[in-house]
Amino acid sequence: MNLFTWLFLLAVTLSTALRLYLSQRQIRHIRQHAGSVPAAFSHSITLPQHQHAADYNIARQQLGQWQTIADTLLLLALTLGGVLQWLWTRLAASGLDGLPQGIALIGCVGVISALCSLPFSLYGTFVVEKRFGFNRMTWPLYMADMLKGNLLALLIGTPLVALVLWLFTAAGALAWLWVWLSWTLFSLLMLWAYPTLIAPRFNRFTPLADPALRERIDQLLQRTGFESDGVFVMDGSRRSSHGNAYFTGFGKSKRIVFFDTLLTQLEPAEVEAVLAHELGHFKHGHIRQRMWTTFALSFISLFILGWLQGTPAFYLGLGVQSMAPALCLLLFMLAAPAFTFPLTPLFSHLSRRHEYEADDFAARHSSAGNLVSALVKLYRDNASTLTPDPLHSRFYDSHPPASLRIAHLERSTS
Question: pLDDT category, 252, cuts 50, 70, 90?
Answer without folding.
Answer: low
